[in-house]
Amino acid sequence: MEALLKQGYEVRALVRKTSSTSHLQTTSAELVYGDVEDYDTLLPAVEGVSIVFHAAGKVTPGWGRWEEFEKSTVIGTNNLLKASTDVGVSRFLHVSSYSVYGGQACGSAPVNECSPCKVECTPDTYYDYAKLKAEETVFSYHNQGKIDVTVIRPGMIYGPRDRLNTDRVYRHMAKPIIIWPGKPTARCAPVFASDVAELAILAATSSKAIGQIYNVAPIEYVSFKEYCEAMIRAQGGRRVHVTIPYRAAYLWATLIEAWAKLRQTKEMPYLTRSTIRFLRDGQYIDGSKARRELGWEPKVSIDEGTKRYVEWRRS
Known about the structure:
Helix 7 (224-235) crosses helix 11 (302-314). This protein has helices spanning 2-6, 43-46, 66-87, 126-143, 165-173, 193-205, 224-235, 246-262, 273-281, 288-294, 302-314, and strands at 12-15, 30-33, 51-54, 91-95, 148-154, 156-158, 177-181, 187-188, 190-192, 213-216, 222-223, 240-244. The strands form five sheets. Strands 3-4-5-10 form a four-stranded parallel beta sheet, with helices on both faces. Helix 3 (66-87) links the parallel strand 3 (51-54) and strand 4. 41% of the residues lie in helices and 15% in strands.
């Protein structure tokens, strides 16, 4: 949103009545209350809009009931597409995820936009499967000639106001003793939020991007441990590093999940089995298409990005 406002666009933000709008109210964006799960509330939000940027959905990989993912991500995407076409919106930018590639995204070779998407619907992959079904809905509208669409598939987004990945890494790396499950040396694809926003705008405003998919990934890959070490450098101070067996970490995550379910906790636990598997498997995606076709280049390094996050967090 900040990137759109900075480039001179008029922005309307869809917010739920339960959402915190303290930051949004400091901007010039127009706020409209609604919910992607409720079609009727979406028409006022998209009326008179030229481009819809759709990033709403349940983001708790490996945690939650299928019905929750289906309502927010699959049905919610269809509702927003229907509302957009009903009022004549011309462009629709859908923020998907690298996870639609399934296990291929953690192989020895990077997956590109031509790689097939294979995701089974299991409790551990509800998020991934819902994102894939949402993509299919997006392209069904496009193929029927109802609206011009573009899909972006980011890797690991991090930066200010991220309440999932960056928040957890920051809190864990701030501890004097850092516990590593196994050796988290698998590749990961951290991309700073402002770089993702820049690509989203490029993709949503370029005629070349109509009907296209773009991975969002760094040029040079790092391991998740290297990303975490950048966060530690930004925080300053010394840390004691301890490595425990991967299986022990997986068992510990299993117990944490079981306790959360026993307590009927809706919030995603601090540590899950999905997180542990990510540390082991990583993510490897090819982002060259966006650079080649749209001229996009990620500008923020992990050292600069983690520094900005720490400064924002401390302020």
